[in-house]
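task queued by scheduler; priority normal; single chain, no ligands, no partner chains; default sampling; output format set to structure tokens
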Amino acid sequence: MSDAYPQIEYYPLSFEHEEMKRRSQEFYNMMDRRRTVRKFKSKKFDKSILDNAIKAASTAPSGAHKQPWSFCIVTNAELKHKIRQLAEEEEYENYHGRMSDEWLEDLRPFGTDHVKEFLDIAPYLVIIFKKVYDLTEDGKRRNNYYVNESVGIATGFFLAAIQNAGLASLTHTPSPMNFLEKALDRPPNERAYLLVPVGYPEDGVKVPDLKRKGLEKILDSYD
């Protein structure tokens, strides 16, 4: 086919078996320390670290290689505060009527409410948008495929890269999130997917003593 991608040779990473085991264990150990943090320092860090994390996210597979995502970094204090105000308006409605009693009960051990001061304090807010379709230069629509799956995988890559850099993050979903599209004046083909504050955790910050499901609860093997 004339429009097929040219083929290039693939050079995979290659390790001895014991090295593979060691690397897999070390990566798990690092990721097992990942926790959601709600209290940040305002201290900034070199933005190139975020750029690299986003580039790592962009290596994720996507439907038909459409890469249907946009990452926006917000550092402007006024815009961050506006985002906080709009998020808290939605979250107030969530905590005072939208969420079911069961949902609120499941959230109770975390001690969360509609107040989201971390949106002001965290030095960087990363807003991930999904492109429900693409727009050509002449304004025509082009389909994207498996958008939620593709953006979800890219988001996972991003969170792992943030953890690998030694920073903390929070996955924030003040649903509905269409206020983010308006606040950042995004194009009509984008929908807010996730809001991720990123920064250094506050000194002495505490997190819930959670236990993750063991392998026997999440893995079924078919030998």
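post-processing summary
- The two ends are 40 Å apart (CA to CA).
- DSSP finds eight helices and six strands in the chain.
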